Each structure stands twice: as C-alpha cells, then as structure tokens.
C-alpha cells in the first residue's frame, strides 16, 4: 500500500532541512500566539507545522513611523505578520499612473494588526509587488524567512490560496476585484460538502456565513416554493449578513455540492468593495416576495 509519506508532493521530507529556531521568552510567545490567532494563514497548520512556524518567526520592532520595510521591485526575503501598529501599501504602477516625486506611487491600502504582507514575492519568486511603510510609531512585526515560508506555508495555506484563486476568477460577482483582493478572499474560504437533499441554509436561522457554489447545484425555497436555483460560481447567504436579518430562505443541495464559505467578519471585511453589487444582483426576474430588484434588469 501507499504510505502517507510517499504522497507528499516533493522529496523535501527526505532531506536534512529543519526550520530555524529563535528562542523566545514566555511574554513573546504570548504576544506571538495572540498575533496569529485570528489569521487564516495559520489556521490550517497541524501541530508540528504550527510549532515550527512559531519557532522560526523572529520579532522585528519598527520603532518609528515612515520606515520602509519592503521596497517594490526588490527580491523577496521575508514574510511579515503585523502584531502591533499599521503599515501603508504603495504601488508604483508604471503603465497607468505617473509616479509621485518620492517614487512611491499610489497608496492602495493599509495593513492592520493581525494582518500580514510580503507573501507574493516568496510564493511566485517575483520582485516585491508593493512598497510597505510603517504608518505609526512603535510597530511590531514578526518575520518568517523565505525557506521556512516555502517549505511549510506554501504546502498548506498557500496551496489552498492557489486552488481557490482559479475558482474565484470565474465567479462573476468578484470580477471587479483586483487579483490581490481575490487572493485575500481565498485565504479566508473554507470548503464544505453536502449530499443531495441536504439543507445548507435554514430559513429563519441567524446568518453566520456567506456561500459560493464551487460545484454541483442547489435551490432556494421560501416555505414549499422554490424561488431560485444555483449553479457553479453563484452565491447565496448574503442577505442575512448584509441586513443583519434571519435567513430569508432555505437553500437545499439538489446534487452533490461543494461550497466555499466565508465567515461573517471576513465577508464584511473582504467583500466591502462589492457590497453594492451584492445588494443589487439579487433575485432577478424571480418572484420571491423580496421587493429589492436590480434596477438594471427590471425593464
Ligand atoms: P510582496 O512580497 O510582493 C509587497 O511585497 C507586499 O504588499 C505584497 O507581497 C503583498 O503582501 C502586499 N497588490 C500587491 N501587493 C499588495 C497589495 C496589492 N496590497 C498589499 N500587498 N494591492 C492592494 C489591494 C488592496 C493591489 C494594488 C493594485
């Protein structure tokens, strides 16, 4: 029979590599655990991988505002997790925008405590895609070296990101997002499976998740009446989250179904840019008892 070991995608497990280890005092360990607690990037690691990552992370205090941690175009060396403070992201997008006199380009976002950055160059062996600068005095980062990142996080977390990215590219509601915004959604998704006839959402329940249909088919019911059907790339479960209301319909799998779910916090944080679209693209041409109709499609 085939052992689990031989199913690993590379021969990495047979060489002598072991992750670097930086001693930490109990106070540091406490802070570090808290910093990565809510980060999806670390939620799919097994115990051994977690302790290897915790051991390999190195504390990097950033004492002042305005310190450049990453320069766009540089080679990638570290991946960073933000424990304290915040960091501005600048992109010098040669083709479109005239770079400012400081050469930084445009500010495209801010990364807060609990967030992370610097993964792209390590994942894709590409130059740094953005410049990252501390936005407050007294920030704290934890840095993970390139090799440990690739050996551990790429085989777990970022393999998932790559898998979902392909799917999310085909999801119409997300097509206006940047590839990077879709990547962040990928990191937060969880897959769930359902058999034909399974109830995915119960009318009247409180809403905790948003759903994207990865494969199979499902249908929405209000009481006994079917009001919508869903195919690959469709979404549901947004209304209860948008309106803080009970589930307005039940959703039932009509075949074997795989859904990718996003928890309420991630939904609010990551789908903000398409909230208007989510509110408008509902129930087109379907009698649902929901008054809201897409103004673009009602004529
Ligand atoms: P990196 O290794 O390329 C810079 O180093 C990091 O900035 C990058 O990894 C990401 O972790 C982070 N586009 C590209 N990189 C971004 C972006 C971004 N935001 C943060 N990073 N965009 C901002 C999306 C809100 C897209 C701009 C068009």
From TrEMBL:
Keywords (A to Z) from UniProt: cAMP, cAMP-binding, Kinase, Nucleotide-binding, Phosphoprotein, Repeat, Transferase
Binding site for 3',5'-cyclic AMP 1: 119, 128
MF GO annotations: cAMP binding; cAMP-dependent protein kinase inhibitor activity; kinase activity; protein kinase A catalytic subunit binding
GO biological process, one term: cellular response to stress
GO cellular component entries: cAMP-dependent protein kinase complex; cytosol; nucleus
Superkingdom per UniProt: Eukaryota
Annotated binding of 3',5'-cyclic AMP 2, by residue: 238, 247
Cyclic nucleotide-binding domain mapped to chain residues: 41-170, 173-280
Homology family: Belongs to the cAMP-dependent kinase regulatory chain family.
Quaternary data: Tetramer, composed of 2 regulatory (R) and 2 catalytic (C) subunits. In the presence of cAMP it dissociates into 2 active monomeric C subunits and an R dimer.
Name of this protein: cAMP-dependent protein kinase regulatory subunit
Full-sequence range covered: 164 to 462 of 462
